[in-house]
Design goal:
The radius of gyration is 15 Å and the shape is globular. By secondary structure, it is an alpha+beta fold. The N terminus is likely disordered. Strands 3-4-6-5 form a 4-stranded antiparallel β-sheet, covered by helices on one side.
């Protein structure tokens, strides 16, 4: 019998020169956790703070087996997160602003196709992100190494709040390319 090993990771934000914990997330240990934390960090810094108590915060691993859509079952394996799940529920009427969607597309491009966004799924759930790569996938490992989520933020070339402007032509082209590749 195979048992999934989970790790509880603390999402931290930088306030002045101190790191402040935002929340704890139970995720699948390894590359999946590292990439999903990168998604959460960027969302927190560039779209909406996750520590305000609004929107439902963050949902990660759950043992609740009732799902509204098949893709929500990824929470059972610890390979999915929902950011502000009550603000952006399954088939919700609330949408993201165009600049926020551009940031989400840029986050997905950062993740090299290893993450799927619920905004691209049917039914739509804008708060949902899950790992699309299988365990041991080389692209997932390379993405984790490039994002460097285990290194201190001072040594990363790209991190939440310091990422290249998502509206630059080369970042937009990369995002569109990934979006079209997923559509085909």
């Amino acid at each position: 019998m195979c048992h999934t090993v989970f790790v509880t990771r603390r999402l931290m934000i930088r306030l002045a020169s101190r790191m402040i914990p935002v929340c704890s997330l139970a995720l699948r240990r390894g590359d999946a956790a590292a990439v999903l934390l990168h998604v959460a960090w960027r969302w927190h810094y560039e779209i909406a703070a996750l520590d305000t108590g609004e929107g439902g915060g963050v949902m990660a691993h759950t043992t609740r087996r009732t799902v509204g859509a098949d893709f929500e079952s990824n929470h059972l394996s610890g390979t999915a997160i929902a950011l502000h799940p009550t603000a952006y529920p399954l088939n919700g009427s609330e949408g993201l602003w165009p600049h926020q969607e551009a940031i989400v597309r840029d986050i997905l491009a950062d993740c090299d196709g290893t993450v799927v966004w619920g905004g691209d799924l049917t039914p739509v759930k804008l708060s949902h992100f899950h790992i699309a790569a299988r365990p041991g996938d080389r692209t997932l490992s390379r993405t984790t190494a490039r994002l460097g989520t285990s290194r201190p933020t001072t040594s990363r070339t790209q991190t939440a709040g310091t990422v290249a402007d998502p509206s630059t032509p080369w970042r937009r082209t990369k995002s569109r390319h990934l979006q079209h590749a997923k559509a085909n």
